[in-house]
Amino acid sequence: MYPLKLYFKNSLNIVFLSLALLMNISLWVWLFLDIGPREEQIFLHYNILYGVDLIGTWGKVLYLPIIGLCILIINAFLGWLLFERSKVPAYLLSLSSVVCHIFLLLAAYLLVFLNV
Q: What is the C-alpha separation between 116 and 87, in angstroms, rounded?
């Protein structure tokens, strides 16, 4: 196995994984500040044909950053396992974490816009 310390010292891994981690932290903060704990139900999904079709508690909005954190951890672990054989798949996994977080931030924007 490739040493974990060396995997995280690689410059591309540092950039991609820290960017994804920064986006995940900002997702947590943004959802807590704008939606936060509420007594009333919030809109969780909007469909252009039917309007709001899913309503739930505010805690369900936290599924977005939880999913993002799981994606980040799994991709970092798989990238570490693949890094010894070939660096390109490891870089692609790290980059895919960033891309996934971009889409999660977009989904969070839509949730905040729907509930504010």
A: 44
Give the Cβ contact number of residue 107 at 10 Å: 16
Task: Quote the CA–CA distance of 42 and 50 in Å, as a whole number.
Answer: 17
Q: How buried is 65 (Cβ within 10 angstroms: 0-12 exposed, 13-18 middle, 19+ buried)?
A: buried
E strand or H helix at 105, and its extent?
helix 87-115
* Residue 75, both tokens: 């991709």
pTM above 0.90, yes or no: yes
Which contiguous run of DSSP H or E holds residue 114? helix 87-115
pLDDT tens, the chain, 116 aa long? 889 899 999 999 999 999 999 999 999 999 999 998 999 999 999 999 999 999 999 999 999 999 999 999 999 999 999 999 999 999 999 999 999 999 999 999 999 999 98
